[in-house]
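=== RUN LOG ===
request id: a7f3
mode: sequence -> structure
chains: 1
length: 74
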Amino acid sequence: MTTYVYETIPQTPGTEPRRADLKQSNNGRPLTADPATGEPVRRVVLGGFGIKTSAKPAPRKAPGHSCGGGCGCH
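=== RESULT ===
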């Protein structure tokens, strides 16, 4: 059994979602409604680390080197 985090999907503006942990089989389908209240819910994906970006890091200059970088000499 795996513990998943679910949150309610607010039906009215300004309502905060409510989160709950729920043990469920790995083979089970994600819930669409809270078993206790019947409110619509979605599974929350948690975990991971870092930030993925498509930006390239700025070229680094070698100490004492005066080129603008990007020449591959460092």
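=== NOTES ===
The longest strand covers residues 2-8.
The beta strands are 2-8, 19-24, 41-44.
=== END ===
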